[in-house]
Amino acid sequence: MNRTICVFSDESGVFDRNRDDFFVFGGLVLDAGKREPSDVANLFSDMEAKMRMKPEYSNVNELKATSLSFQDRRRMFSILKPFHKFGVIITLDNVLDRIFTSRKSKQRYQDFAYKIGLKNALKELIRIGMLNVDDSLRFSIVVDQHQTATDGRYELEEGLLMELKEGTYNMRFDKYFEPLFRNTESLKVVLADSKDNVLIRAADIIANRVYFEANNNSVRNLENMNMTITSLP
Fold first, then answer.
1. Domain ranges of the chain
2. What is the pTM of this model?
């Protein structure tokens, strides 16, 4: 079957163990053939319109998690429950010291974590029958422009394509990991500004929720939320 899978993601936290305990990715995995991207966009836009009727948000340019009350963040998250979500929780104290020595090494580790988290989410969709390993897939991966540097977009794109279509080889363990979807037709990573993309703002709400639960040692609260959580390292 020919399918187009759209992924929208954002991050929460700072990738610096001196400033944060956790660094988190959060996002949505949506089937364009089922009109899920437009359905989520409409639901989220309607909720934002209702929020803007509140006096406390009248002068807020962008309704992101940091500008919303705890209760309103929960309301925003609740409308996303029917759609498949994913989260990646990186415990910074457990990351190797050498990863923090340069911007490049930090970005590479974040890319690695993102790939594993998304792959696990797609595996879950296979397990529950929403995707099939023989599907011919086109992937549109939209990330917040602050998440990935412009020059790093191509590396992330290349890494994801290899992970999903070609498989990967780990020299340290002399092990080959089979690709998830050999019939992947295309994969494109796009940088987007949350001000202009309602689904990136939805991903911001998801990332913030995962970050909150991680910091409160309550990740179990995300069970039965239609979400795949990956904890690293």
1. 2-232
2. 0.94
